[in-house]
Amino acid sequence: MLLWLLLRRLAAAGVVLFGVLTIVFFITRLSGDPITLLAGTEASLADVAQLRAQFGLDQPLPVQYGHFVANVVKGNLGASLRYRQPALTLVLERLTATIQLAAAAACIAVVTGLTLGILAAVRPFSVWDHVSMAFAVVGQTVPSFWLGILLILIFPLRLGWFYTSGYGTIGHLVLPAVTLGLFQAARLARLSRGGMIDVLVQDYVRTARAKGLPRWKVVTKHGLRNALLPLLSVLGIDVGTLLSGAVVTETVFSWPGIGQLAVQSVFARDYPVVQAVVLVASIAFVLANLCADIAYSLADPRIRYG
Amino acid sequence: MMIQWFGSRVPRKGHDLGQRGGAPCPRLLAGTLIVLLGVAFGRVPAIGAAAAPEQIIVAVPNDIISLDPEAQAEFSTRMIMEGAIEENPVRLSSAGEYQPLLATAWRIVDPSTWEFTIRQGVRFHDGEPLTAETMKFSIDRCLNPANKCPRRGQLVEIKEAVVLNSSTIRVITQLPSAALPTALTYLPIVPMKALQADPQLYGKTSVGTGPMRFVEWVKGQRLVTERFDGYWDKKSAFKRIVYRPIPEAVTRVAALRSGEVDMISNLDPEMGSIVERTPGLRIDRRGMRMIFIALDATGANNPALADKRVRQAMNYAVDKNVLIKNILGGNAFANVGAMFPINPGFDRTLKPYPYDPEQAKRLLVAAGYSNGFDVTLTFAPGIEGSLKTAEIVQSIASDLAKVGIRAQISQVEPAAHWERYYAKRLQMFVGTWGSSPEAGLQFRTLLHSKARGLYYRDPQADKLIDAYFSAMDPNARAESGRLLHRYVHEEAPFIFLYHQYQIFGLRSNITWAPRPVEFIYVSDLDWKP
Amino acid sequence: MDSPAAAHAAAPQRSAAGSPRTAWRRARRHVKLIFGGAILLVMLAGAGAAPGLALHNPFVAAPAHRLWPPAWASGGTSAHLLGTDQLGRDILSRLIYGARVTLIVGICSVAIAMPVGTAAGLLAGFRGGRVDALLMRLVDTQLSIPFLLLAISIISVVGASTINTVLVLALGGWPMYARVVRAETLSLRERDFIEAARAIGGSRVRVVARHMVPHVMGTVSVIGSFATAQMILLESSLSYLGLGVQPPVPSWGRMLSEGQSYVMLAWWLATFPGCAIALTVLAINFIGDWVRDRLSPQTRLL
């Protein structure tokens, strides 16, 4: 049953990925070509035309699309027009950095958000409630580039903690991860508080309390599990948000991930790299959703996918 | 599934969840929480290894694109590579003249032939000696269309290179060209034997004749170079130089001030003043990039611009001094007639157009535009290294509005800008010219109808430009330069603005010999305790 | 132990109807709406009255007056209460005019995304089968492209302007509605009253419009209110990357991103628009909370 479901989902995912590549193909090529940027500002018209021909960009769009599809099926996403190296390699080289950042941000978000949200739920109207709701509000109103720069100015510059930019140690990871994770933490705080409250007012919880179970046991055993279910499906969508947010965060902190590569490549019209980045991001998104759905159906046997 | 969390509700007071409701407390800000998190993760001191001159770290806005000098023409890559790992035959001196580098002497044999003498005793990082054959190989490699060398355009005036002996080479041009040495500043000398042995050499490493040898390049993170002890000239003062890309300007400045890096490039004037005020740091101004507003003098997209009086009116309408003083903080000087002060023939008697809105209005009325007209002003922020492009453009638009010219601002990104440029869709746009300030190439590329002919086509200008570049005798060159300068000043194909300096921030201990270009030549750097 | 119903029932007994205490209690239930609504009304009023309210022209550059601090700081003048920006323009006036753009962008993008997404979700949930599969694949396809990349690519093609920003943000927003509405529709579809309506012979469109839409509107309004806040934040990220509204039109997001490069020198450039954004987003979130709390008894009874 599960296997069949998995196969169907994978087939659907394949369709999605193909659609994604096609959309990106046409959008990037509609926005102009990289030749004028590559040729430099002092090139002549003849050079520009020649360079364009050499890269095969002067052919009609459907022809180019045909070549593209043929190559993709073979697993070849082309070579970066700027770096002159295979696009997929470029992306995969930097994928580790983004995964590290996203994972750290997700950890921060989950730990902070859940803790604050649950605390707020079990102690309504107390200090914890107000603190966590203030946190949730502030965290969702601050744009990430502003937060990032603020953190840079306070911590490495004023206090001498951590680093302004770069990659290599955990010290380098802290500020970017906080910047990226804050928005998600705030969201999770609100959601988990709401979900938790919902669960805690249920009759079966009161029954458990009435039976004399200590509160922490009630919270973890009954409350947590049921409150987490809707969060799972929300987390699935958030992989996309994390990658989007990484774009800005990576630029501010000079974090060598695929977000920065993606932005540079879009601005430089480096099609193969843009395509490779989007492909990798889509695969990540699809996988994350799949895992979330599986986890969901495993956790709650009442859920059935028709 | 998802309905559940939307249905959550706020518990009412008096609803016992096992906790008494507390009195409302003042809301604490999330900042406290973040700080606590920071403490929990532990302190890491952020002091860079910049105290001793063993290693210095240079932070630039963009990573290099490629290790192959003939595979890219990007300024940000050239700024680092030329002067560290690679070298050209000639270089500009602080006075703006050609200085021997890998070529020790040159002379004109006949109007289409230059003869260069190659420096003896120079070795590449892998030990290969530099000879005339190496230079010929480098020229051929770039001219070969199969290599897709973006710099080909600058060298295309070269017909062929002929080796006379191991230290002499003759470069024959298609047409007489007085500016050939300028073209050679775009030509890096590449290692012939290493490339013949391994054509994919530049995919892994970089080999040149420069003072630093390549160690490693981790894309997006760092380019590490090490002192080359076999360098033919003064060796690098630093054993290691690391180049790091930091795209965000504020982060760059913060990195310099916190000690993580020792030198940064591409500062705004305001950031420059902050760095100046910081003890232990100083700023250095380099280059004289010319910034102008190009006008579509063909009138194809806006007939008003075809009239010389309108273009001159625009020059009178813009207050350049406010731009230079207020927006650029004095970090520029006024441009006259699109010529650099070090160009041969620069006419010092010419003065920039003064700020005179009344004169502008008179000219507009004379041209028949007493009610002004509409025009589109396109720019890409930071295009070609221009500082504060957005502010300059908005200030100019305000100035133009005061004389009745309604400029609508269109901000695009660089790729879109170039696309529109080559599609001849622009009316007014920001242009810059930064490299080779000594030869006057800007006239040939921007104003000659055979070069691009997109926004300015004038047979008279073509004649003057051709004369300027084929005059091999220095006096003749200066004279034709004067004529050209006056003509362009009068014709006003641009709104002439200013020459801006690029601002670098660095440790006070680092000294840097002055030069009118923006490249970071390692042999110009030194350490003063 | 008190149940919610008991607590409600108990309350009126404790004080006479119509007394200030009852009114105060009732007001406290709606405090979020009052607070949020008040802020939003002030913003909207300020935006609407911009030409009369703003003392200075927010579009014309006056570089001789640039970077003057707010009136209370040293070097400031009372003519410019919140100081001037990097082109000498009055920040307060730009904030007031900026409210227009920011609120328009935020509200319009939601106003476009909401009906489109809801319609798609209803269609997918109600019709099921291939229509459902097609629409959900479309949603997945779009969601799996990181939104910022999609936005940059599209704006590179169509050019940056206020209207294009609205459209791009709307494009980014509709999938969320579609997904949630589809889920609700799927569960609603099996319910008795829907079956009854169909059995009576009502056309499908009628059934959907009269019976389903009211039920999903609650959830949709909640999403919409939070989405408005998110759109406002996304607009500032787009401005940071150089896309978004064209200069010299002020928007809070643009002012914020332009101001953050002066943050070491002139803190007031970024702080005031940042506060304005934060306040507006706060207000909208409060209203969203209130809507959700108000609707929750109903959604829970479904």
How would you describe this protein?
The complex is a heterotrimer of chains A (306), B (529) and C (302). With 306 residues, chain A is mainly α. Chain A folds into two domains: 2-73, no CATH class; 87-299, MetI-like fold, CATH 1.10.3720. Chain A is built from twelve helices and no strands. The longest helix of chain A is centred in the last third of the chain and has 39 residues, at 215-253. Helices cover 30% and strands 23% of the residues of chain B. In chain B, helix 16 runs antiparallel to helix 17. Chain B has 17 helices and 19 strands. In chain B, a hairpin with a 3-residue loop joins strand 8 (212-218) and strand 9 (222-227). The model of chain B is unreliable at 1-50 (pLDDT under 50). Chain C has a domain at 101-252 and 284-300: MetI-like fold. Chain C has twelve helices and no strands. Chain C has helices spanning 4-14, 20-29, 31-48, 50-53, 91-127, 129-144, 147-158, 162-189, 192-200, 204-240, 252-259, 268-301. Chain C starts with a helix and ends with a helix. The chains are: A mainly alpha (306), B alpha+beta (529), C mainly alpha (302).
| Main structural class of chain B | alpha+beta
Q: What is the global morphology of chain A?
A: flat
Radius of gyration of chain B: 27 Å
Domains of chain A, number: 2
**Approximate helicity band of chain A:** over 70%
Could you name the ranges of chain B where pLDDT drops below 50 across 5 or more consecutive residues? 1-50
Report the major sheet of chain A. none
In terms of quaternary structure, the protein is heterotrimer
**Uncertain spans of chain A:** none
Number of extended strands of chain B: 19
Backbone structural class of chain A: mainly alpha
Number of helices of chain A: 12
Could you tell me the CATH topology label of the largest domain in chain A. Answer: MetI-like fold
Distance between the termini of chain A: 12 Å
Helix % of chain B is 25-40%
Number of distinct beta strands of chain A: 0
Largest interface: A-B, 94 and 81 residues
Provide the gyration radius of chain A in Å: 24 Å
CATH class of the largest domain in chain A: Mainly Alpha
